[in-house]
Design brief:
The chain has about 80 residues and is of the alpha+beta class. The chain has one domain. It is built from two helices and four strands, in the order H-E-E-E-E-H. A four-stranded antiparallel beta sheet has the order 3-2-1-4. A hairpin with a 3-residue loop joins strand 2 and strand 3. The N and C termini lie far apart (about 40 Å).
């Protein structure tokens, strides 16, 4: 049941993002999370493959975080 819930949550995580990036292309994303302490936001390099994914060592997208803006890493340099 938890696995199903995680998949549903991940599927809805892209609704606030326009023009999803190419699959597996690294992007610098502004990520927001709302919890009982309020809203927090930060930037992180992530990628997209039908769902938003974080790189190894990160717990992003496991607790309802959403990408609100993004830009290709290659365009940031």
């Amino acid at each position: 049941m938890k696995r199903l819930w995680n998949r549903i949550r991940e599927a809805f995580a892209i609704h606030n993002v326009s023009n999803c990036p190419s699959e597996l292309e690294p992007v610098l994303a502004k990520i927001e999370h709302i919890n009982s302490l309020g809203k927090s936001s930060w930037y992180e390099v992530v990628y997209f493959d039908k769902y938003w994914r974080c790189y190894a060592g990160s717990d992003t997208f496991k607790d309802g975080e959403k990408v609100v803006k993004w830009r290709y890493c290659k365009d940031c340099c």
